Amino acid sequence: MSIDQLSGAAAFQKAFRGDIITPSSASYEDARKVWNGDIDRRPLAVVRPTNDQDVSAALQFAQEAGVPLAIKGAGHSYAGHSMVEKGITIDMWNFQQAEADLANHRVKAGGGARLGAVDNALVPHGQVMPAGVVSHTGMPGLALGGGVGYNSRSFGLTCDQFIRLKVVLLTGEVVHASETENPDLFWALRGGGGNFGVVTEFECRTHDLGPYTWGFLAYPSSQSVEISEAVIELARTAPRAFGVSISYGIPAQKFGLSVPESRDTLVTVMVYHRGTPEDDIIKKVKAIGKPLLDTVEINDFLTLQTMSDEKAKAGIGWYMKSGYTKEVKRDLLEWMSEASVDYTLNVSSPHVERDIYTLQLLGGAIQDTPEEATAYTGREAQWHSAVECGFTTPAERERIVSWIQESWKTNSSYFDMDASYVNLNTDDGDEPVKKIFGAKYARLQEIKSTYDPNNVLALNWNIKPLA
Question: Hey, what domains does the chain have and what are their CATH numbers?
Answer without folding.
Answer: 3-91 (3.30.43.10), 213-424 (3.40.462.20)
